[in-house]
Description:
Layout: H1 2-15, H2 61-73, H3 76-86, H4 88-94
Helix pairs in contact: 2-3
Amino acid sequence: GSLERHTVVEQVLARARVGYKSLDAASQFHHCIAIGHLPYRVHLVKPEGVNATDELPADTATVECDEVMKLVAEGAAGWTKIWEQGDELRRALMQQEVLNGFITPDCNFAPTSRLKVPREPVLA
């Protein structure tokens, strides 16, 4: 669940070493930028009685996927709604559960991993 994802991020940062090797990166610099794939997910559909931090029951996965795909089709407005309402990392940052003190800019754009880039045939 969310606690496991927070732990993964903490472990990655604890091993980040630049400058003085005995100190973690976040304690040495005024600015630290964390870039990369973090193990967080998008959760939009919450059944009655399920807390925001709970894992979703398996039977809600299809409904949630359909809702996310509808929002993706809307373009930037849909991505903004996904980010504002369903992004686990954003929620964890706002609740100061992970990366305490880090500031993230608005992410009102599609994740680059979801972009379909047309491929030209390669001549060998």
